[in-house]
Specification:
The complex is a heterodimer. Chain A is an alpha/beta fold. Chain A has six helices and nine strands, in the order βββαββαβαααβαββ. In chain A, the strands form two sheets. Chain A has a five-stranded parallel sheet with strand order 6-7-8-3-9, sandwiched between helices. In chain A, β7, α6 and β8 form a beta-alpha-beta unit. The radius of gyration of chain A is 17 Å and the shape is globular. Chain A starts with 10 loop residues before the first strand and ends with a strand. Chain B has one domain. Helices cover 85% and strands 0% of the residues of chain B. Chain B is built from nine helices and no strands. The radius of gyration of chain B is 18 Å and the shape is elongated. Chain B starts with a helix and ends with a helix. Classes of the chains: A alpha/beta, B mainly alpha.
Chain lengths: 214, 217
Amino acid sequence: MIFPASGDVSVLSTENLSYEINDKLILQGISFSIQSGQVLFIEGENGSGKTTLLRIISGLMQADEGHINWNGKTIEDERIEYNQQLTYLGHSTGVKAELSALENINFFSALSGLAQKENPQAAMKRVGLDSYQNTLGRHLSYGQQRRIALTRLMMEPSQLWILDEPFAGLDKKMIHDLQSLFVKHVNEGGLLVLTSHQHIELDRVETLRIKLEQ
Amino acid sequence: MLFRDLQIAFRQRAEIMLPVIFFVVVVSLFPLAISPDPDVLRSIGPGVIWVAALLSILLSLQSLFRSDFNDGSMEQILLSPYPGSLLMLARIVAQWCVTGLPLIIISPLLGLLLHLETHVNWILFISLLLGVPYLNMVGAIGVALTIGLRQAGALLSLLVLPLYVPVLIFGSNAVISAANDLPYNGQLLWLAALLVMATTLSPFVISSALRVSCSYR
């Protein structure tokens, strides 16, 4: 087990999540439960509320109704513990234009507050950016900025990954590498919640699917 | 966090110098526009410097949190296991270092320009030292509340200016009292009390306000 902080199997569950914007019901009665070793794949068309659901699960937004539980306790009660175990990657990469690639990565790891699994240089090498260490964020392409954000998955020892469109802007090889990384993470006892427009099948991994309707 | 913010600020020198340049330009235009007479300048000097300082801090607020909010690093900061209030305090200290501090350091020179006497100049320096961090912190609360809005500028001024008025009154009044050989300790103590209040409370308010702003994106 690579997650000594959590020890046993972890469970993420939601009860009856509902959310509305301008009187329009975006999410209604979303309930699920996943545990270590499982993947939750959220499907749906554009505007069906996938991103909203991920932001609610990560704690960035509050649901109008319903609860999110991490190991049996609501995430509001267990905020610090939950944030330690969480890596969230949204649409925006969080890469600062004024900092170099390496400085950006160092900042992410300082912010996560835990000892990292891998050193920044090795993580950069794995995403194919080892020759860009001192390049400023503003000189990197969108795909390269996404790769910088993805190094967090390799470095942070978090158990729960919440990823919004993780394959956007990446080439085929990187998508393949990322899928292997997902399988490894889940098989080592991690949890993965993701959305994607691409149909993905992760080998030998138990995958739950939720389809959001508009 | 503090180090990273200073590093970012240092890489956009032109942008961060703007409020300080604004401060110097506004103050140095007054002798040209009103009168070069030392007596006139001595009487308006404290007020002019305080108003210019207040406006240049207001100007610098516009960029605070903006890039963090747009590029998604604010989300990562809010999801960090560290207390949000502590991270926000670091953010404001960094902001103060690049906008407030240069302004405070340069103010005695501008005091000389406006013919303020040496001991009055000292009081001006101390009043700004106590008052400007308050302006930074209270301003940051306003920014945190309005960051999600498109046209936040006017609303920000409307929200923040009433909270700035007491500091402006105590600050400039302390300097005017010193110039007229009246006691000024009371005003300075008030400034110090407001600063203590802002330092202890504003980081919590800012981090909660940012949470709210982020959730209605």
